[in-house]
Request: fold
Amino acid sequence: MDHSLFRALTQLGDDSLILGQRLCEWCGHAPTIEVDLGLSNLALDLIGQATLLLDYAGEVEGGGRDADALAFHRNAEQFANCLLAEQPNGDFARTVVRHLFFATYASALYEALAASPDARLAEIAAKAVKELRYHADFAADWAERLGDGTEESRARMAEALDWHWRFVNDLFHDDRDWAACAARGLVPLRQSLRYGFERDVSAILERAGLALPRKVWPIVGGRSGQHSEHLSVLLATMQVLPRAHPEAVW
Amino acid sequence: MPLPSDLAGRIAAILADVPDPEIPAVSIIDLGIVREVGGDDGAAWVALTPTYSGCPATSAIGRAARDALDAAGLEGVSIRIVLSPAWSTAMITPQGHDKLRRYGIAPPSATGESGPCACPRCGSLSTHEISRFGSTPCKALWQCDACLEPFDRFKCH
Reply:
């Protein structure tokens, strides 16, 4: 088995799956019906990408596991998503900032992956990048509107930026498996995307009258399965039915 | 061995009658979801492509195409899903554009979403976006300033 490729694909698939599951929690609770639809649509894109990526990961692993087996029958420490994706939705500002960080990172990453010599990964990425650019636009739109809105919305955006900034180091962490795939030219090093990320996010925030925090948080661990407690709670909800009825089909 | 052209034509004609499950005014041929009809050693196949990675209609479309082919006695024609090249709104046929407009959905414009969008009801160019997300992943929600009707607009990508 190509272990490092399996791990890299799991990292990509788990990011999409976990963030998609988080966004689903907004369904029926968003500030307006349009935002409710919007967040559900973003979730749908992400879960679709996760299915393609985890099915491929299962094939690379060669043990007969498909996307469903990987999604529903692994425990928290076996998940390789970034810490940012699993963070609770919080208020709408926190959801917007989380998505701004993730979608800005992911659209640059998938643009590079669309040129991967791994043809299967490249075609999944070519599909995903078009969707993720839309995600980045959506988040940038709202970041501007809230940052440039009322005193209340602006304060909440500043708080949300400060909160989620601590997970950005982990978002760009190149663990051993990812670095091994990068050395083979299959994926770009995440660190190589960080400058562009900070430039793009800073430009959006500047238009919103906001700025990136200056503090540096050295937390990493998502890629190697060291998660915050929030992931277990999310998985308990997501996995309860398939775990209770592992043979069920519909 | 390539597929005999009469069989390929027959398959295409059958699929031209399969409506999109979420926008039944257009067929899966109109939307460009049917990527190719081909054959390997005489075994015919149909390649379908999803509009979006997570489009929930993808499996329903596969089933509807399967049912239509079976009903026509073409049980041996297989269906495969292809991702590459990625679907884009440029694959919607001119006939598909007309059908969408008549159905009340603004078709994707070549100038992209920042360009003007004609109201599919009254034709006014004075329209604005309400939300980037509409009733399905492939559409945005717009409103006409002249007749005030809200309408769906196909995203351009």
In short: The interface with chain A takes residues 50, 52-56, 83-88, 130-135, 137, 141, 155, 157 of chain B (CB under 8 Å). The beta strands of chain B are 34-40, 43-48, 78-81, 105-106, 127-131, 139-144, 150-154.
